[in-house]
Every structure is written in structure tokens, then in C-alpha cells.
Amino acid sequence: AQLVESGGGLVQPGGSLRLSCAASGFPLDLYAVSWFRQAPGKEREGVSCIGNIDYGTYYSDSVKGRFIISKDNGKRTVYLQMNSVEPGDTAVYYCSVPPYWGQGTQVTVSS
User: Fold this and answer.
1) CB 81 within 8 A of CB 18
2) C-alpha angle with apex 107: 48 to 30, nearest 5 degrees?
3) What is the pLDDT of residue 37?
4) How far apart are CA 103 and CA 81, in angstroms?
5) Is 111 helix (H, G, I), strand (E, B) or coil?
6) Which of 84-87's residues contact partners 24+ apart within 8 Å by CB, and which partners?
């Protein structure tokens, strides 16, 4: 089983970015998928999660109203649409389906 994130990069404050998490080796539609992030010198924190049955979603207070998580079971991919990004969103973003983690993708918000 493997998770691979992509889509990170440098974006200006107020801009948008879409991260992707591609799964292989297991049926993504059977599992909830979470996005985490870790900024330099800080602990890893949960950002968003999407359920496997009713596609219920969760967002941390810091991203609620700005980020949108979605899932395409046919493509075995989960997306994190990041809108109105702020410098505080700078971090390495990871997707996870316990016990699996991706390698992370760097997001840098800077002008």
C-alpha cells in the first residue's frame, strides 16, 4: 500500500493550491483519509478528514471555510483544495490512511 502526495509549491498569500493524495495497493473507497501538516519547529497537526461511508468531512478551525477536501474513488485520489492561503499555512502536508503515510508535499505561502 502506498500514498503519494503532489501539488505543493510556492503560492502567494490569498492564492489557491490543490493538493492530491493518490493511493495504490488498497481500495480507497473503504477508508477515511486525513490530511495533516507540519510546520518547521511545530508538531504535526490534523487539517482535514473525509469519511468513507457518508463522505462526512472535518476541518480544523484554522482552515475551516478556506480548505475543501474531496475524494474521487475511481481515481483513488483525495484532494485538498486550499483557498485564501495564509503564511501560517506554510508546512509539509501529508495524507494518511492509518497506518500508512505519504512522503509529504511542501507548501510555502509567501509573497
Assistant:
1) yes
2) 35
3) 98
4) 19
5) coil
6) 84/14, 84/16, 85/11, 85/13, 85/14, 85/15, 85/16, 85/17, 85/109, 86/13, 87/13
For the stretch 83-103, pLDDT in tens is 999 999 999 999 999 899 999
Burial classification of residue 37, based on how many CB atoms lie within 10 Å of its CB (0-12 exposed, 13-18 middle, 19 or more buried): buried
Copy the grid coordinates of residue 21.
493524495
Residue 106: predicted pLDDT: 98
Total residues belonging to the chain: 111
Q: How many whole angstroms separate alpha carbon 62 and alpha carbon 55?
A: 21
Q: Is the peptide bond before 40 cis (omega within 30 degrees of 0)?
A: no
- What are φ and ψ of residue 87, in 5° steps? -55, -30
Residue holding cell 503519494? Answer: 4
